[in-house]
Amino acid sequence: MKKQTIAYLAISIGLLIILFVVTMLRQQLPFWDEAYYLENLVLLENLGFTREFLLAYKGPAGPTYAWIHYILSPLTNLQTPYVRIVNTIFLALTVFVIYLTARTIDPSSKNNEVIALSAMSIPTVYTIAGMALTEMFSVFFLSVFIYLITYVYVKRKNLWILAVVAGIALSLAILGRQPLLMVLLALPIFFVSYEKKVILNQPFKRYGLFIGVTVLAALILPIFVFSIWGNIQPAAEASTGVGFEPKHLVLALGYSALHLCFINPTYFNFSKDISSWFELAGVLVVSVILNVFLLKVSFNPFAVIVSKILPEDLMSLYSIACGSLLASLGILFLYYFLKKQLTSYDKMSAFLSLGFLLIIATSIKVTHQFSARYVAQAFPLLILAAHYKREKLKTIHIITLVIGGILGMISLDNYFVD
């Protein structure tokens, strides 16, 4: 094992351990979204999993969060820091499942552990794994679904029990964070035919039946819950609002670009991926024009910290500058990510990338407030897509891991300081 690989594994595992220790040391009572969603445990205790519970349910995210905490309540007593450490443990489980998926895709690779642990380079992951928030459970169940879909596709073993398990896993993911429903729309990519290129690893004949059983198993419970709500979220908590908010989609794409830079900074090889500098300039000019005249994206990363450094009259300029930069990154990311992934003519690669983009595309319907957590909930797909073509581990990967880890810990700490 090379020194760089050893260093990456040591640092990433160290970051996970530090996150665990820091989370255990956080004794503050539940606050912000934590307290809000934990109130549903009282409803579940009093009403059980009934129609009345679902109608009284608080928050736009689904009831998976309440179910998991209810099951684990004998161990956590619904007290801090134990309700928070559950999310950290689920992060570790998610990393392990991503490792299994990466190993299934390429058993000969020596970097499968690195791929899985690159999750620790994503700053937003520290927030959803270090607080008692709703995303981490859904991320875990999404990763299980991805693993089983990948396992059957690569191993060409049509085991019906795996179809049912994959469907149940995805249904729990959907009922935790409803946007994950969109990953189902990426499944048909396995059956798209390309005339000019040979698709790697064609699906075997009965894979369609496997997918059909999986989809059926995935939708039964969500349809039951959504039918009671009359919507995909409780009517009283319709946070997505009415209409569309394009700037939130651009923000989601911008965060995706940043996450990709942390996960795999060598993903884009500009000498190969860019046809010409005129192409890059054209995409960049279009993105700037869209933001200046139409989107007008503003963005305040680490606002509390920066506000202590910059004068108040400069904060608006800081917001505009960061917004323009993030919007440009987002549009550039969309263009080149699609170009690189969908022209690889590999169906698994196309599924991973399309599934990720479809999930974050739901940000356009979030009209009340944008959060980077909307992007983080799909991070297993982005990690596997970003590392699909295995590359040598370089020093820059270690640097982005350290930077991402530091930013993640600072961001998490910022919630508790506030």
From TrEMBL:
Residues 78-230 form the ArnT-like N-terminal domain. Pfam families: PMT (PF02366). Keywords: Glycosyltransferase, Membrane, Transferase, Transmembrane, Transmembrane helix. One of its GO terms (molecular function) is transferase activity. This is Phospholipid carrier-dependent glycosyltransferase. It is found in: Endomembrane system. It is a multi-pass membrane protein. InterPro entries: ArnT-like_N. The chain crosses the membrane at residues 7-25, 82-102, 114-131, 137-154, 159-175, 181-200, 207-229, 249-270, 277-295, 315-338, 350-366, 395-417.
